[in-house]
Amino acid sequence: MPENEDGNGARPGPRRKARSARRPQPKRIAEPKRKPNAAARQQEPRIARIESEAIEVGPGGVVVGPEGTDPPDLSDTPFDGTTTGRGGTANRIDITYDPSKSENACPCERIRFIQTAQVFVDGNATDPGDLVTAMEERDNTALDDDPTTERDETGLHVDRLTGRREPYYGGNGAGTGASVVGTCNGTSRSATMQDTPFYHDSFFAPGGADSRQGNDWNANEIVVEFEACAFCESGERAGQFMECIKWTYRKTAADVAAGSNGRAELGETTSKPSKAFDKAVKRWIDTKNFDLPGAN
Question: For residue 129, what are the contacts with CB-CB under 8 A and spacing of at least 6?
Answer without folding.
Answer: 19, 20, 135, 136, 137, 138, 139
